[in-house]
Task: structure prediction
Amino acid sequence: MGRLLSIFIKFINLKNEIIMRKISLVVVAAAMFAVGSVSANNNPTPSSSKSELASQIHKMLSDNNFAIGDDLTADVRFMVNSDGEIVVISVDTTNNELEGFVKGRLNYKKVKSDGAVTGKTYTVPVRITA
Result:
């Protein structure tokens, strides 16, 4: 009976050792995941910087004198230079007057956007309503 009890205790100890190894592995994996998640969130989100830029562009273009019958639309491609200025790359529209207006209002105007990546190309849709 003593031998059977001894074998049973060794089995329990072996089982506990395996369980402890698995728990240790899970804890290490969870710690690595947590550290990776925290370090990945140090940068501002691109969508927030883009919406911040879009909001500032909206303010710059809001005061206009277009006498139009229909809505005018354009896709404005731009980047932010190292001085924090918008550099208009292109204005995709069929209306030349709108293109000139957008370029005149936005090109080399300072913006406040800590999340904007210097040199990255952004595209913002613009609509002037009738």
